[in-house]
Write a structure and sequence with these properties.
Layout: E1 2-5, E2 28-33, H1 35-45, H2 47-67, E3 73-82, E4 88-90, H3 107-115, E5 122-124, E6 129-142, H4 146-212, H5 218-253, E7 257-260, H6 273-283, H7 285-305, E8 311-321, H8 326-330, E9 334-341, H9 350-415, H10 421-455, H11 459-475
Parallel strand pairs: 2-7
Antiparallel strand pairs: 1-2, 3-6, 4-5, 6-8, 8-9
Helix pairs in contact: 1-4, 2-4, 4-5, 4-7, 4-10, 6-9, 7-9, 9-10
């Protein structure tokens, strides 16, 4: 359901006068929304929530990437090498030829050896330019728990981002409550000020007639006019506040304009503090978030401790391409094996990192304990603020009745010349002040009620309550 109206366009400048003076702006349609629909709209259009949602997706992607740590790695490698000279073996440098004394040999053998060129003794193993390519595999089968710890950290980071998302939802919920009901509050306040202006305008007209008849002095009529002008100023302020509240809500919901339909309500029976406290300390996302941080700190301790343990891995190599040298013919085409790496002395400061990880773990635990205290205090304070606001509303019912009766009597007395204009104006202002004060108390009640429901994780219950109250108002 939408509320639409047309606004004439302002014509600016002499050049625009040549255009039609009947130009109109596009229709300004205020979409009517109950609180449940506004909350659903906010969940869909909030850029802040979308940003947090992408943070969750990023954490999940990292978790998926961490699963690959269990798999083997397979690489194709290739190399080109130019040697200073080919690798060669000269048989004359090996025993027994190297230690052979030619002079001791028979002359016939010496003559034969002399006829053999020296190049015949040289056997080339490689070319001067060597090109090789191979397929290499490595599979860690034991890493001292470091892979498991890293995967646990990734899983805890997903939980942390999800709880941060939940916290953001609750913060936006409270912000929506403030802005949503601020529109109806400021609108009611503006209507109240408008009623005051209308009433004082009639009072001024009546005072002018009485002055003309000589029943009251001029100062009485001036007092009424001053009160009217002050009321007009307050009415203008109230209208500006209403416009700003409406703009803030519309921008939050990404709509041009919005007309809230759920009215402020008060529960006949208040929720119990014990149940609210129990839900808060067991389900609050801030505590879950700190538990995720604690899990990350535990994983970091295990990760750093894993640096003291050996790493066992399987490895293999398969030659894809090699030249036709003698070395290539001797070298096997494939090989597999088991390797182990034992850290003895390292420069990465493992002991310091372990201590730092343990400190992070203690920090998370102490922060969680402090957060529990803060949340317990928050729910207590918010609950008492809710009760205080309700007591103010109930107490102001009597004040409202008294102010209404006082205005009625002052009106009668002024008309009969038994009371001054100041008395009548004061009675009118007193009634408006009581209405405004009670409206503010109702607004504070809604804020406090929303906070206790958000802190205790009952946002859906709050939304359902607004629908029930809206349905009851509709039947009335």
């Amino acid at each position: 359901m939408t509320r639409c109206f047309w606004r004439p366009a302002r014509v600016l400048g002499w050049a625009a006068l040549s255009l039609t003076a009947l130009a109109y702006n596009s229709a300004a349609c205020a979409e009517t929304m109950d609180f449940a629909k506004a909350w659903s709209q906010l969940l869909q259009v909030s850029d802040q929530l979308q940003a947090k949602h992408q943070q969750v997706n990023r954490a999940k992607a990292k978790e998926d990437a961490g699963d690959a740590l269990n798999y083997p790695s397979l690489n194709v490698s290739a190399s080109y090498t130019r040697l200073e000279k080919p690798i060669e073996l000269d048989l004359q440098d090996l025993n027994p030829l190297a230690s052979l004394d030619v002079s001791t040999l028979p002359s016939a053998i010496t003559e034969v050896l002399a006829t053999i060129p020296s190049s015949m003794y040289v056997t080339p193993f490689t070319e001067q330019e060597v090109f090789r390519s191979s397929l290499q595999a490595m599979w860690p089968i034991y890493t001292g728990g470091r892979i498991t710890a890293a995967q646990g950290i990734h899983a805890a980071q997903v939980l942390e981002s999800e709880h941060e998302f939940a916290l953001t939802q609750r913060e936006l919920f409270l912000q929506l409550v403030d802005r949503y009901y601020a529109v109806s509050v400021t609108q009611t306040l503006a209507d109240t000020q408008k009623q005051l202006v209308d009433s004082l305008r009639l009072h001024v007209a009546h005072a002018e007639k009485l002055e003309q008849q000589g029943q009251i002095a001029k100062v009485e009529r001036l007092n009424a006019q001053v009160a009217l002008e002050n009321a007009k100023v307050d009415w203008g302020k109230a209208k500006r506040q209403y416009e700003m509240a409406e703009i803030a809500l519309a921008r939050m919901l990404h709509v041009p304009t919005v007309n809230p339909s759920t009215k402020i309500f008060m529960l006949e029976q208040q929720p119990t503090l014990s149940r609210l406290s129990q839900l808060t300390l067991s389900e609050h996302p801030a505590l879950k978030l700190l538990e995720a941080k604690e899990a990350q700190a535990n994983g970091l301790v295990d990760l750093e401790k894993g640096g003291y343990y050996p790493t066992v891995y399987l490895y293999g190599n398969y030659t894809l391409y090699e030249d036709d040298s003698l070395l290539s013919q001797v070298e096997p085409d494939w090989m597999v094996g088991v390797g182990v790496s034992i850290p003895l002395i390292s420069r990465d400061g493992r002991s310091g990192k372990v201590l730092a990880a343990k400190s992070a773990l203690l920090q998370a635990r102490y922060t969680k304990a402090q957060t529990k205290q803060d949340l317990s205090l928050l729910i207590d304070q918010s609950y008492r603020q809710m009760l205080q606001a309700k007591e103010e509303v109930d107490a102001l019912d009597v004040s409202l009745a008294l102010a209404s009766e006082n205005l009625r009597l002052r009106e009668l007395a002024f008309n009969q010349g038994l009371s001054t204009s100041i008395d009548r104006v004061d009675a009118e202002l007193s009634l408006t002040a009581v209405k405004t004060k009670q409206l503010g108390a109702k607004y504070r009640y809604m804020q406090a009620y929303a906070k206790v429901m958000a802190v205790s994780g009952q946002v859906d219950e709050y939304v359902n309550r607004t629908q029930i109250q809206g349905a009851s108002h509709a039947h009335e």
